Structure formats: structure tokens, C-alpha cells
Amino acid sequence: MTERRSRPAHRNAPRKQPVGAPDPRMLALKTLQELRGGEVTLDELLSKHGYGLPSLDRNFLRQLLGTTLRHLGEIDAVLAPRYQPPQDRVAARLTNILRLGVAQLFFMDTSDYGAVDSTVNLARDAGLHKYTKLINAVLRGLQRDGFEWPEGVEDWQLNIPAWLRGSWKKAYGAEISQAIAEASLGHAMLDLSIKDRTTSADWAEKMDGLVLPTGSVRLESGRRIRDLPGYRDGDWWVQDAAAAIPATLFSAYQGKTIYDLCAAPGGKTMQLASLGASAIAVDKSEGRLKRVFENLERVSLGAAVVTGDATDLAPDTPRADAVLLDAPCSATGTIRRHPDILLRQNDKLMKSLLPIQTKLLNQADKLLNVGGELIYCTCSLQPEEGEHQIKSFLADHPNYERKPITATELGGWDEAINEAGELRVLPIHMQDFGGMDGFFCARLVKKS
Length: 448
Prior knowledge:
Blueprint: E1 2-3, H1 24-35, H2 42-49, H3 55-70, H4 72-79, H5 91-107, H6 112-125, H7 132-145, E2 148-149, H8 155-159, H9 162-172, H10 174-184, E3 190-194, H11 200-206, E4 210-211, E5 217-219, E6 236-238, E7 257-261, H12 267-274, E8 278-283, H13 286-298, E9 304-307, E10 320-326, H14 341-344, H15 347-352, H16 354-367, E11 368-378, H17 387-396, E12 400-402, E13 423-425, E14 439-446
Parallel strand pairs: 7-8, 7-10, 8-9, 10-11
Antiparallel strand pairs: 1-2, 3-5, 3-6, 4-5, 11-14, 12-14, 13-14
Active site: 379 (nucleophile)
Organism: Thalassospira profundimaris
Domain SAM-dependent MTase RsmB/NOP-type: 152-447
């Protein structure tokens, strides 16, 4: 047995909460409980529970949840020898309280006393008075003894679920899948799409960033977005660099009508509009489309916005010159930004999305004029949601053919282009620039 980790050397006492102010640890507990259902995302819950919190508390809430989710496998391994969940309805709450305590004790800079005391108080405030002695004993024991685990077990093997490890190994091989896993547990940079792409270098200089080969401006993460120059004037919007690629791959924009299916929150719609296209954003969620409206208004761009299920649009829906389909998917390429995927997503849920993606592709065909381009993309690392979908679609639609993506279109970057001319971006790509989100993109042309 080998000790794997000591506690951080510099550790702070927990901040005192003003009387009557929400406790961010209690909000973190509520968030973990609600994530278990798999239907809501961490970002949605942070917007809900973090609304109105002072900046320091909001940042602590995000850090505590992100740390807990990224290290969840390790945390559960640390707890396993000392804690067996009770066989009653409080088990999930009690386990999540202990998880938050271990996250602070071993993976954050909270003082030992602060981590233990605040976790005991959290249990008391959550109505679990009879378990406070158990929590104190478990955390004090870990504080005193540290933790060990078997030689040869790596952090990523504990923190990445088995179904994901297995699927990545099958798709990419052992060495690359390990690198993907390790990169996925890191932190993402802050990427911006500039409304006037010809000024990207100027904006990068203003904000002490850099321009990626694909055209996005990249900044260090952790900066307050609303305080950055150009935000209030609508000169740019936040958009992951990989997600910003597909909308730049159409052969023409001026005077062209382009559908953006499953459009919310609107980053690609804004790109299409800024390039001169008549963009039509379609999404079935009125709430999410509200964000599209707000984003378009902030950046002073125009687009048609349609509420509707893209799998079941009316037969008389007008056709367009091009269609961009960013299909709903498991989002396993975005774990760096959304570590809740490690908890919410599973193989069964991923497979339940496959028929929806197929329906959307078939609907996109019905919306596209002959000679038009169809771009299909997902923020997933799973081949079933990317390469396999395109292979099946082409087999069922012989009137389509691939239009290979070229390095010239990506500023000379060819690392992610596969043999079929599709884009398969991995988190290990562009490592010198801080990595990328996992992404798949294919471009098809309707011949007849």
C-alpha cells in the first residue's frame, strides 16, 4: 500500500457566514442531491442556487462542487474503508455531506479544523443530528491518518466512470484513452468568438490572450466575463473553441438561409449572422431560446428564432441553403467545463440519444435544398454519436456525400482531421494552447 496524497500545505479557515445569508455548503449539498436525477445540469443548478450570492460565496460554491465532482472517484475510495452508508432514506444526503467534507480536507485549501467543523455543522443544519459523531469520527480519522490505496491505481481510473474508460479504450486505444481521461479531469480555458473575426488579434492583445489557429481568442480562465473589454458593446461572446468551428465551414453565407437546429444558447447562430447569413435558430425549449434572444440582442445581430421540436417540424417548413445540426448528445467531450457529466451521464442514457440524433439528421435532410451543405456535430467523444451516425446516414441517403474538412479552413491545423475528412477533436489536442473540448464534426453535400 502506498500513500498517494498529503493535504495542501497552505490552508484557510472557512469564511464566516453573515447572519441569515445562505450557506454555500448547504447549497452545494442541495445541488449534489438534485444532480443525482440526471435531468438538470450543474450550470442550471448553479444559476438557481448561486443567484444573489456574494461573489466570494458564489465562487466558493462553484469551486467546492467542481472539486467534489472531479475527484468523486477518489473521494469515494477514501471513504470506503471508514464509512458504510446506512440503509435508510438519509443515505444519499449523508454520503454527499461526507463527500463535500473530504473534498475540502484533501483537495481544497480549507483548514483541517474548518473542513471538519463546517461539515459537522452542515449535517446538523440538514437535520442529520444523529450522524454528527460519525461524520466527525470519519473526517478526524482521515485528517490524522491520511489515506492510502493500492499501488498501480491512478487517479483517472477512479474518477472516470468504468463505462467511459472502456468506451474510450475501445475507440482510441489504451494510451490515447488514458491521455483523454487525464486531460478531461483538468480545467478548461476561456474561449471567445469575435463578432468581426478580422479584429481577433486586436481583441487578444487587449485582453492579454492569444488567437488560436481556428480563430477563437483564448484567455486564462477565472476572469469575470462582464468586466472584460467589449462585453457591454457586444463585440464578442463566450464559445468553446471546438464548438466554434462548425459554423465557419459553410462555403457561402451572404444571401444564404441557414438553419441552426438545436440552437440554444445561440453561439453558432450568432456566428452565422455575423458572417452574413440569414440564420434561423430552432430549439424546442422556450427557456433556452430566451437566452438566444438575449445573446443576439447584446451583440446587435439579427436572426429568426423558432420554437419547435426539430425532430418533428411541419411538412411545409421552408427549405434552406444549408443546415447546421449540433445534436443533443452525452457531452462527454466537455467534462473539463462540466464535471457533473461524470455523475449524470451513463452508457444507457448515451444510447437513448442515438435515435434522436438519427431523427434529427433525417429531418435536416428534409429541410435542405439540393446542392446544399449539411454540417452535423456533437460535443461527444463517443463514436456512436459521431462517426457511426454519419456512416449510417450516408448508407441510408446515397444522394449525399462527404465534403472533407481541410487544414486550410482551420488555419493550417490538421491534428484533428481523420481519414474521412471529418473533424474528431480530442481533449489532448492543442495541448500547447491549453487543450480543447472533445468534439465531432462532419460536412455533407446533398447531390440530388
